[in-house]
Amino acid sequence: MTNWNALYDRLRTKVPSLELRRDEPMSRHTSFQVGGPVPVMALPKDEEEVQQTLAVAVLEFGVRPFFMGRGTDLLVSDQGADLLVLKAYSGLGRLELEEGRTIVAGSGVSMARLAGFALEHGLTGLEFAQGIPGSVGGGVYMNAGAYGGEMSQVVTRVSAVGLPLEEPVQEQCVDPQFSYRHSIFQEQDSFILRAYFTLDPGDPAEIEAKMEDLAARRRAKQPLEHPSAGSTFKRPAGHFAAALIDGCGLKGLRVGGAQVSEKHAGFLINTGGATCKDIVELMEQVRERVFKETGVALEPEVRYLGKEGEGWNF
Ligand SMILES: Cc1cc2nc3c(=O)[nH]c(=O)nc-3n(C[C@H](O)[C@H](O)[C@H](O)COP(=O)(O)OP(=O)(O)OC[C@H]3O[C@@H](n4cnc5c(N)ncnc54)[C@H](O)[C@@H]3O)c2cc1C
């Protein structure tokens, strides 16, 4: 059993500049706006604070932190989770141009800011990222993508700190081994520090026009006015999850405050006051109905965090 008070106090002393929260509700940090507390959350502002936090947590307390970005792909139990959460999004905001066409971005940089930076420098290739609401760290981890673009097409290098930790803490250059909504980071315990994007020169007016077009397409098709985690299920081979769900007549299906969006059947939304339990029950109902009617087993795209034995039953 982890002594969370002792870990919190030790971090306070050993890394005095680190922003720390005790019993922090995850509903404040997830785009679904649900989730109970985690005992300790650390919000490092730079890579040095990440390394110092890991050294205390892993080497002194044997605690494996959970790494998060902006919480736009996370579903957290109403009971919370017994975890030290290391959140990149509030800090780790390095954003620089190297050798004319390589952008170095800290894992806490938002995808929108990254895409905007590429536009400012007349570089093309990141237009797809502009409307993805997560961070660079989460984007690399998920190989996030949209409208034919994805991180695998533009990321040339990723620097990370892996667990088990060495002392002194070592940074590694990791080949992300991307595939559809997948990277090697889903099989390893590593904190992504930063990513390198090598892009081609482009016409700023064309880049901007493409971003505006993609943003308009999102606004027209997606329920951006409601909290959600985007597409709740992965795209099954040979199908589209939204089309299968719509085809089974499930748009508008509700459990408590959770609903299958009327606008986009692939999005489960929080219409106000939804609990994690509502969302999970709705996911189970959707999955069962789609499987019964089409034979396709939907797999969640969102990541679940909770106490042992909780979550979905599939
Ligand atoms: C309205 C809406 C629209 C969306 N549209 C799209 C879309 O078009 N395309 C798409 O791909 N996704 C989309 N998403 C989903 C989501 O934005 C992406 O998956 C995004 O990449 C998640 O980034 P994040 O920073 O929020 O990650 P989080 O949700 O915080 O974390 C996701 C995973 O990444 C890991 N992780 C995050 N940061 C780090 C780090 N620094 N080191 C190691 N691991 C890390 C976490 O452990 C977790 O397992 C959408 C979501 C919403 C709410």
Explain what you see.
- There is one protein chain.
- The chain is built from seven helices and 19 strands.
- With about 325 residues, it is an alpha+beta fold.
- Helices cover about 30% and strands about 25% of the residues.
- The chain has a five-stranded antiparallel beta sheet, covered by helices on one side. A four-stranded mixed beta sheet has the order 1-2-5-3, covered by helices on one side.
- Helix 1 crosses helix 2 (about 45-60).
- The radius of gyration is 20 Å and the shape is globular.
- The chain folds into three domains: about 5-85, Uridine Diphospho-n-acetylenolpyruvylglucosamine Reductase, domain 2 (2-Layer Sandwich); about 95-205, 2-Layer Sandwich (Uridine Diphospho-n-acetylenolpyruvylglucosamine Reductase, domain 3), CATH 3.30.465; about 225-305, Uridine Diphospho-n-acetylenolpyruvylglucosamine Reductase, domain 1 (Alpha-Beta Complex), CATH 3.90.78.10.
- It has helices at about 5-15, 45-60, 110-120, 135-140, 205-220, 240-245, 275-295, and strands spanning about 20-25, 35-45, 65-70, 75, 85, 95-100, 100-105, 125, 145, 150, 155-160, 170-175, 190-200, 200, 230, 255, 260, 265-270, 305.
- A hairpin with a 3-residue loop joins strand 6 and strand 7.
- The mean pLDDT is about 95.
